[in-house]
Every structure is written in structure tokens, then in C-alpha cells.
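Is pyridoxal-5'-phosphate placement plausible here? Inputs below.
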Amino acid sequence: MRTGPKSPFIDLRSDTVTQPTEAMRAAMMAAPLGDDVFGGDPSVNALQEKIAGLLGFEAALFVPTGTQSNLCAILAHCGRGDEYIVGQQQHCYRWEGGGAAVLGSVQPQPIEHAQDGSLPLARIAAEIKPDDAHFARTRLLALENTLGGKRLPFDYLQAATQLAADKGLQRHLDGARLFNAATAQAEALGTDVYAEARRIAQCFDSVSVCFSKGLGAPVGSALCGSRDFIARAHRIRKMAGGGMRQAGLLAAAASHALDHHVRRLREDHALARQLAEGLAGIPGLSVEAPQSNIVFVDLQGDAVDRGAQLLAHLQSQGILATGLYRLRFVTHLDVDAAGVARAVAAIRAFFAG
Ligand SMILES: *Cc1c(COP(=O)(O)O)cnc(C)c1O
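Reply from A.M.:
I modeled the complex. C-alpha cells:
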């Protein structure tokens, strides 16, 4: 099915479903191009400098996907027989086909999240192995922000990354939705979203950012870090098949998104709150108050087995959502207040019927 702004569907499955805007398409068409495997694509180079500068790093690498970005990061920080500490629900443990273990012989050490999405400091400390032949070498702490739509508190990020540094670990942030985290943080503190993105990023040795989620670009992520780190990641990207040629066509879309789609993320967050508020009080539905652009809904009591039925009902009404593990509704560039209102009405009708 075709989705996007001209489609009849209200697509709340993910913020990855957006179509490039007319202005973004124009920026892509106007982009100067070269062969990025030779380092010769001016639009890729400009994007890498822009995102590294924005987040306060020496260098950045444009990669096709967030999955490849995390893979490059973990393999650039860790060698065979090393391990990384990671949360059970984090993308770079649970949702990437075990890539770090399969392709890098790097062992994950997953730990349970606290209710707010954080990894308890005592649990992190307890999993750092002593230097002993029995153990993998603990090299890296990987966090994710936002995680399942939750913003990790900034004082927690500081404490966790300080603990890791004190123990000699590297720190990686899967910031696929870093700008959503920064938006929520800027709203909470009354500060600037770009400044908050940089403050969060600067707690880490490396940060991965997705352009293809809420930022609305069609393809692409960036990995940021020191010049040496990015040189190692560059080699791994090539090995993973991620060396792209006239990639400036895509990098131009990402650059456009960084310039024009960051400040508007607060609109997505407001729509997520509108959706959650619209669903409040429906018997059989428990709605988690959203902190960013993702609303999770759990079915309860007699409704607990009606998830597939609800999704089918919504689809028949032209509304798309997913229920891979919990019902999930995601707001983005191609959803507006009228669409959210229609989704609320359709869900209410399902439970009234
Ligand atoms: C989407 C996502 C990724 C991976 O991005 P792809 O481009 O789909 O590979 C990584 N981490 C998080 C938190 C994500 O949401």
C-alpha cells in the first residue's frame, strides 16, 4: 500500500514511514554529488561536518541505517572476546539480529531496565568483569535515548557515563531518536533543542543518530566520535557493505532535515499527548503517558486478546498501527491533528461496539 501525505491512510506504525517533503526533494535534486568511497561527495562531507559540529564531535560517518551505525560503533569500540553492557530492550541488543555477536564476536551483557528506562547504576557496576581469564573483557556501555519513547533523565546520563568512564569503559549512545530526547528535555527545562542534543551527546564517546525516523529523511544515519574512532568505523562500514557512491543525494535530505525538521518535533510530541489524552478512560485500555512521539497502549481484562481485532478494525478505517509486542502509535511529519482525532474516534468506536 502507498502511504504518506497523499495516501488515504493515517499511518501511525512508525516515524519511519514519512515521505520526503517537496522542499527536501528539491534539496536532494540540487545536491552536488561525487563518489563517497573516494571521499569525494561534497554533500556527504558537508552532512558529516554538520552533524559532528552540532553534537560537538571531531568527526562523523554517514551510514545507510541505524543498525549499521550501531554495528560500526560496537565493532570500533570492541574486539573479539570483548563485551558491551546494554539494556534488555535496547535496539543494539534485541533488534539487530545479534549483529555485534554474529559479525564481531562481541558478547552482549544485557541487563533489565528500571521503570524509567534507565539501567540501574549498581547493576551496571555489578556486570563489569574483573580482569580474569574466565571473563570476556568489559569494554563498553551502550545506552539508548529515547528508549521506547522515554527520555532518560539527564542527571542519570551523566552519572551512568561517569561510572563507565571511571571503570575504563567506552560509552556509546544509540540516539536514533536523540532529537526527540532533546526536544523533551528542552521542553522540560525551557532550553534550546540543539543545545540539549549536544549536552546529551557530550556525555558519550560515540553517538548514532537516525535521519529516517522523526527527522523525516528517506534513508540514513550518522555515527559521531573522535577522528580515530571514525577512521575505525569507516573500515567496518566498508566491510559491512555500507560504502555508498553518490550518497550525497541521501545526505542532502538528512542535512535538510537537520536544518528544518528538528524544531518541529515538538509538534509530534504534542500530537502524541493529544492521542493519549483522547484514549484516556476507555475501559480495557491502559495508556502510558507519552514523553515523546510514541504512545504505548496495553489491553487489559476482557480486551486483552483483542489486539489483532483492534488493528484490523483500525485498518478498515484507514488507520495503521502495530502491535508487535504492545500496541504502538507513533506521530510524525505526515500525521496531523485531524488524523489523530480520527484515530481516537476509531478506537473509541471499537470499544463502544
Ligand atoms: C530504528 C532504530 C535503529 C535502527 O535503525 P534502522 O535504520 O532501522 O536500521 C536503531 N536504534 C533505535 C533506537 C531505533 O529506533
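Short version: DSSP finds 14 helices and twelve strands in the chain.
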